[in-house]
């Protein structure tokens, strides 16, 4: 099963949002017509998709790494000696 046009737009946006002026939440609303909450929920679901990984491996791997580091810090605490990723 392939990812939808909307899923591709979300991944494309995540790859390039930092080049846009203003806050990310405003850009999400303007470019995708989504609330930030809905965007992050959909992005989180996409990170688990093998099709999303095939479409944009760099973005998906970066997001998986950030998610895994946040989980690890949450379970091990900040004293675990690992850098914090926000």
What does this structure look like?
This protein has one domain. The model has no long low-confidence stretch (mean pLDDT 89). The N and C termini lie far apart (32 Å). It is built from five helices and no strands. The protein has helices at residues 5-16, 24-32, 36-47, 50-55, 57-76. 69% of the residues lie in helices and 0% in strands. The longest helix is centred in the C-terminal third of the chain and has 20 residues, at 57-76.
Percent of residues in helices: 55-70%
Radius of gyration: 14 Å
How many domains, as an integer? 1
* Secondary structure tally: strands: 0
Low-confidence stretches: none
- Biggest sheet descriptor: none
Please report the distance between the alpha carbons of the first and last residues.
Answer: 32 Å
The helix-and-strand class reads: mainly alpha
How big a fraction of the residues is strand?
under 5%
What are the key terms here?
mainly alpha, 69% helix, 86 residues, globular, 5 helices
Layout of SSEs?
Blueprint: H1 5-16, H2 24-32, H3 36-47, H4 50-55, H5 57-76
Give me a quick take on this structure.
This protein is mostly helical. Helix content is 69%, strand content 0%. The chain is built from 5 helices and no strands.
């Amino acid at each position: 099963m392939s990812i939808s046009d909307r899923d591709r737009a979300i991944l494309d946006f995540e790859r390039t949002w930092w080049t846009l002026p203003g806050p990310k939440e405003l850009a999400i609303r303007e470019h995708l017509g989504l609330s930030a909450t809905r965007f992050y929920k959909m992005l989180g679901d996409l990170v688990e998709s093998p099709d999303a990984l095939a479409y944009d491996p760099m973005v998906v791997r970066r997001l998986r790494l950030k998610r895994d580091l946040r989980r690890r810090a949450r379970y091990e605490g900040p004293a675990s000696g690992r850098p914090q990723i926000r």
